[in-house]
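Subgroup meeting minutes
Present: P.N., E.W., G.H.
Scribe: E.W.

1. P.N. recapped why we're keeping a running log of single-chain structure predictions: easier to compare across weeks, and new members can see raw inputs and outputs side by side.
2. G.H. added today's entry (123 aa).
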Amino acid sequence: QLQAYGGGLVQAGDSLRLSCAATGPTYSTYTMGWFRQAPGKEREFVADISWSGKTTYYADNVKDRFTISRDNAKNTVDPQMNSLKPEDTAVYYCAADASWYFKIPSTADFGSWGQGTQVTVSS
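Output recorded in log:
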């Protein structure tokens, strides 16, 4: 089970840290990822991190602003989001999968999903 939290209303340029807590299977050995979905748009990839934490992928539109990290002892994965923009407004979802893909993943590459947390960035 995946539980995402930390969303909220912030202003453009602010920072926000989301967190996803995983319970149940051995998520410390899973790839963990974050996706987001804005109103009227498809769910899109944000970032993911390998089970070891050594490899990460970022979407181009968040690269250099977002940093994903994980703590396998606590079974959490956190994206630190800096320099937020109004276009970052979306519901953010965490996801997990036993496989690692050496590419930008799609939603189909993740088998487990948490509920979303709303992030709203005002201009």
